[in-house]
Structure formats: C-alpha cells, structure tokens
C-alpha cells in the first residue's frame, strides 16, 4: 500500500536519504550540534525547508501519515508526537538541542498537519496504532517514544499496548486521568464546542489557544500565525472528534499499569491545562518514573525553555542505562 517513493525510502538508500536530510535540517535550523551537554546556539527557523523534508506513508489501516525523519539512520530511533491541533513543527525549538546521535521521527498525527483526515476514528488507540504501523513501515523494531499533551496520551497508549516496541517513554504535560472532567468542564472545552466554521486563525480564542505564560523565541513567535492558520484549516469535525473520542471519557488509570518501559515525566509548574491533581494521578500510577517540573513554565516547556528541556531528555535517553529509573 506504499507509493514507490515511500517504498524506496524504507528499502533502498535509506541511510543516504536520512543523512542528507539530517545535514539539511542542521542548515535550516541554523545550528551545528555540539557534544552531549553542549548544544549549539540556534538561528532562524525556516519552515518551508522543514516542511520540504516531510514524507508520507499510506498505512494498512487506510490512513496516510506524514512525518519528518532527521538524524543518523543508525542512531537510536526517537518518535516525537505532538499535541491537539498542532503538528510536527511544534518540536522545532527543541531540535537544535537534542543529541545529534538520535534518529528523530516527527509525526503528524491523523487529522493534523500533512496527514489525512478520515471521517473515523480519533480515539487514543487509533492514534497509537497509526504510530505502530508507521514504525513497521520504516522497519523500526523498537523506539523511544516522546509525546506532548494529547501526544503524551498517545505515547502512553503505545507503551501500554506495544511494550516490546517501547524502549523508553517521555510524557510532557501529561495526565493520569480523563483530561476533560465532566464534573468541572474546563473553559477551553466549552469554547471549542462553540466554534463555527470557517475557523478564524486571528480570533481571540485562537490567540489564547496559542499563548504562552512565559516568553518564547522571537522567531518562533513570528511563525506562530502559520501554526494558527494550520490549526484553523483542520476541519471542525476533527477538532470535535478528537475532543470527544480521545480527550473525554477515558479512564487512563485502567491501562497505565501496563507500562513497563522507563518513564520520564515533564511538566511546567504553571500549566493551565494540567493541574496538580492531574499530575499526581500520573505520578501515583507510575511511582518509579523520573520527574522534572520546570518552575514557572506553562503547557509547552519545550517552547519556553527548549535548551533546559532537551538537557533533561538527552540525559534520560542517552546517559541513564535501560531500566534505570529514579523517583
């Protein structure tokens, strides 16, 4: 079910393609990676060049998934899964600071970015199964899985149902229970249910949706309107389907005990979407997880302090031996 281009990517000249793209990525990010623990300074982010690296794979479940592959093909594979209404671009501020040893696979989840937008279905298991099928297509038997927000719930689900394919697990701005509690519906949920098409990328809701409690890189802010336009281009039916199927009514506590991989939990202390109660629910379910809380940061620590966030991630992925976790 793959196009000829995708089949060639997996079966032939894979190393040369990825190496060329890794070099290209370094140029577009305006950086040269240093040794672990000494990341280089960043330059301006060229979104057009980044987007040109994107490939697509037609999966056996009928979904076409877009992704970007960066870094050495022989390096440890790391899958990065973005959040609700976002895309693979969300990881751009973090990339210059991640270890150059890593083979990064940045995914656009179904309904988002360059991936297809099927009529059905948008549960966390649907999203996780797409990731599993993508790794099958890329002949990646085992990977580190990193997820942010909704992506962290997808990452949890992947690790729960495919532990043999999960080396380590990093959950950023995650929760251990239903993100949308019926007894106290968050304001943003009500606002989403009141949206009407066409969505306006410059509406007060969208400006607030993409806001940050702390300053972020100026170049990243300049490209934010492009992200808002992309989010506004997502059909409202997809916004609502993800909200209803993946973010509402699921008891994460039932399946969290299935996770056997070492886990790193990352939060910002001022996250407006994940209150302390939600964080504690995840820590209680994963008592051996390593935990990093960044004081003063919000829901997107990899935007707000990408260097510090990457240092924690690098240490967890490349320094600590497999199976070694600390509370």
> In terms of per-residue confidence, which ranges show pLDDT below 50 for 5 or more consecutive residues?
1-43, 322-327
- Per the CATH scheme, the topology name is Rossmann fold
Q: Please summarize the sheet with the most strands.
A: 8 strands, mixed
How many helical stretches?
13
Q: Give me the secondary-structure category.
A: alpha/beta
What is the first-to-last residue Cα distance? 44 Å
Portion in helices: 25-40%
In what order do the strands lie side by side in the largest sheet? Answer: 1-2-4-3-5-6-7-8
Give me the CATH architecture, please. 3-Layer(aba) Sandwich
In CATH, the homologous superfamily goes by the name Alpha/Beta hydrolase fold, catalytic domain
> What is the count of structural domains?
1
The overall strand count is 8
Principal-axis shape equals globular
Please state the average pLDDT score: 84
Strand/helix succession: HHHEEEEHEHEHHHHHEHEHH
CATH class: Alpha Beta
Structure description:
This protein is α/β, with parallel strands linked by helices. It has one domain (4-318): Rossmann fold, CATH 3.40.50. 37% of the residues lie in helices and 14% in strands. The protein is built from 13 helices and 8 strands. It has an 8-stranded mixed sheet, sandwiched between helices. α5 links the parallel β5 (143-148) and β6. α4 (124-137) packs across α5 (150-161). The protein is globular, with a radius of gyration of 18 Å. Residues 1-43 and 322-327 have low confidence and may be disordered.
């Amino acid at each position: 079910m793959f196009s000829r281009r995708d089949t060639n990517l997996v079966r032939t000249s894979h190393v040369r393609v990825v190496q060329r793209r890794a070099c290209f990525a370094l140029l577009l990010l305006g950086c040269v990676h240093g040794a672990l623990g000494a990341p280089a300074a960043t330059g301006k982010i060229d979104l057009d060049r980044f987007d040109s690296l994107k490939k697509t794979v037609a999966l056996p479940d009928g979904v076409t998934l877009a992704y970007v592959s960066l870094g050495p093909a022989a390096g440890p594979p790391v899958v990065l899964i973005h959040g609700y209404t976002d895309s693979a671009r969300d990881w751009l501020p973090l990339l210059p600071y991640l270890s150059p040893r890593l083979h990064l696979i940045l995914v656009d989840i179904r309904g988002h970015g360059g991936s297809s937008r099927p009529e059905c279905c948008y549960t966390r298991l649907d999203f996780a199964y797409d990731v599993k099928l993508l790794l099958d297509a890329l002949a990646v038997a085992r990977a580190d899985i990193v997820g942010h927000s909704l992506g962290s719930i997808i990452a949890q689900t992947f690790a729960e149902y495919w532990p043999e394919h999960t080396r380590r697990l990093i959950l950023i701005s995650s929760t251990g229970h239903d993100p949308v509690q019926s007894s106290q519906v968050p304001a943003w949920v009500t606002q989403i249910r009141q949206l009407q098409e066409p969505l306006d990328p410059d509406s007060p809701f969208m400006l607030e949706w993409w806001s940050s409690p702390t300053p972020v890189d100026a170049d990243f802010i300049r490209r934010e309107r492009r992200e808002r336009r992309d989010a506004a281009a997502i059909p409202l039916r997809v916004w609502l389907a993800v909200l209803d199927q993946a973010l509402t009514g699921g008891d994460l506590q039932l399946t969290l005990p299935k996770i056997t991989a070492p886990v790193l939990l990352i939060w910002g202390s001022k996250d407006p979407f994940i209150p302390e109660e939600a964080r504690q629910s995840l820590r209680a379910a994963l008592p051996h997880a390593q935990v990093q809380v960044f004081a003063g940061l919000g829901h997107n620590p990899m935007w707000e302090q990408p260097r510090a966030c990457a240092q924690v991630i690098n240490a967890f992925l490349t320094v600590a031996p497999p199976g070694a976790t600390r509370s």
